[in-house]
Input
Amino acid sequence: MATRTLTEADDGRDVVLHEHDAVVVRLTENAVTGYQWTAAASGDCVVLEEAGYAPPEAATPGAAGVRNFRMRAAASGVCEVEFRLRRAWETDRSPERTLRIRLRVE
Output
């Protein structure tokens, strides 16, 4: 069982996993702006186990924290996980940012 850590730099990347491997995706988020990352996976090869926000380490006003998504490779197959940065109340607008990671579970 291995754990892979991915960031915004991995946008568009194909990642190979083995069943029961974990993936942690760490995305920069500034909670005071109202923008928040969400995740959705196509297929059932991965399961989202946990999502949480870690505030900035420094007490600098306006500093960004990190949104962490922890997923587990559940079954062999290919899934695409899409992450969207948007304000929850702006459902009629396109996301500020979209990231995609393709996961292949062997």
Q: What stands out?
A: Residues 3-105 form a domain with the Immunoglobulin-like fold (CATH 2.60.40.2020). The CA atoms of residues 27 and 59 lie 19 Å apart. The chain has one domain: 3-105. The chain has a mean pLDDT of 93.
